[in-house]
Amino acid sequence: MNSRFALLFVALLASGCNHDPYGVAQVSGKVTLDGKPVPQLAVMFQPVAPEGNINPGPGSYGITDAEGRYSLRLVGKESPGAVIGKHKVRMDPYSEPQSAIGDAPYRPPKPLVPIPSKYNRAEAILEFDVLAKGSNSADFQLTAK
Hints:
Layout: H1 2-16, E1 24-25, E2 28-33, E3 36-37, E4 41-47, E5 60-63, E6 69-71, E7 73-74, E8 82-83, E9 85-93, E10 126-130, E11 140-142
Parallel strand pairs: 2-11
Antiparallel strand pairs: 1-8, 2-3, 2-6, 4-5, 4-9, 5-7, 9-10
């Protein structure tokens, strides 16, 4: 009897090792500002906790390319996708991390395209619902005004 329990326990552990407690779907899209693609932009999705759930899962991020396209990856896991459900979306200019040179403090480079603060403050105005089937059209048309 003990060997059956041990075998069942090992099987449950093995099946759960790579299993996320959250449903995840692949998400990609394009970001434009006044109709033009926005390169080097960090697109960040943060799941909104439904009532009674204090941990809706990890956030996701993607970096736009020269054409404004991005694909999300789970923070901390670096696997493709985003948690299924409602998300707040923020966008910030992105530059590769660099270290300070000598005694000069690090100063981030000026963004290629300035993004209005309404898209990158804590009370993000953008939202997106990640569905179980995923999305390749999580597009955002931003405006400068």
